[in-house]
Amino acid sequence: MRLFPLGQLAALPALLLGGCAVLQGPASAPEVPQKLRPSADERLALVVPARGVQVYECRLKADAAGYEWALVAPEAELFDTRGQRIGRHYVGPHWEADDGSRIVGTVQERVEAPAAGAIPWLLLRARSVGKEGLFSRVSSVQRIHTVGGVAPGSGCSAARAGASARVPYTADYVLFSPR
Fold first, then answer.
1. Contact between residue 79 and residue 51 where contact means Cβ atoms under 8 Å apart
2. Cα 140 from chain centre
3. Residue 158: helix, strand or coil by DSSP?
4. Is the Cβ–Cβ distance between 95 and 128 less than 8 Å?
5. pLDDT at 142
6. Average pLDDT rounded to a whole number, residues 136-154
7. 2 inside domain
8. For the chain, how far is it from start to end, CA to CA, in angstroms?
9. CA pair distance 23, 45, nearest whole angstrom
10. Which residues pair with 127 in a beta bridge?
11. Which of 10, 17, 24, 55 is deepest in the core (most CB within 10 A)?
């Protein structure tokens, strides 16, 4: 049985009740800090809520001065307006629709999340690496409205090297395509 620190349990209701909507069409993009805005030649394509975990591994720090929890990968399900699963998000980072369309992202910008204990908000450049479909024309991705997902604050040591932690999170992935 996996136990979560008390601070992570406080976020559990928000994780369980996280949004389950996909906006399509002319809706406007959510407000974000200036540095997370896509280029002027892109338009909102979809807002895709996600629920899942951020997977961390206990590893020796790069400077060999102790151990830390290092991000391995996200593992999340993506949903539509009816709460139906439409795809998944995983290492790469990749977003893959159930129709086989898939994109991979590269972080361009990041800002600290407004909520304590939440992973940062991001702007990623995206490129298609799958077949034609729902995600194939996506050129940028914002990760916003994050809840949870932060690496554990303790429990990583030489004795635990190689151990993993799966930390629940929710986020909205705002997908943009060329105009």
1. yes
2. 13
3. helix
4. no
5. 97
6. 97
7. no
8. 48
9. 8
10. 104
11. 55
Q: Is the dihedral of CA 140, 38, 20, 2 positive or negative?
A: positive
Residues in the chain: 179
Convert the pLDDT of each residue in 41-63 to its tens digit.
999 999 999 999 999 999 999 99
Q: How many domains does the chain have?
A: 1
Residue 34 has φ and ψ, to the nearest 5°, of -50, -45
Q: In whole angstroms, what is the distance from residue 144 CA to residue 135 CA? A: 18
Enclosing domain of residue 139: 45-77+84-178
Give strand ranges (E) for 19-153: 23-24, 42-60, 67-79, 85-90, 94-97, 102-111, 121-128, 140-148
> Is 105 within 8 Å of 47 (Cβ atoms)?
no
122 is a domain residue? yes
Within a domain: residue 142?
A: yes
What is the pTM (predicted TM-score) of this model?
0.83
Are 15 and 170 in contact by the 8 Å Cβ rule? The answer is yes
- Residue 160 φ then ψ, to 5°: -105, 5
Residue 88: count of CB within 10 angstroms of its CB: 18
Q: Which of 76, 56, 77 is nearest to 68 (CA)?
A: 56
Structure tokens, 135 = 């995600």
Classify residue 164: in a domain, yes or no. Answer: yes
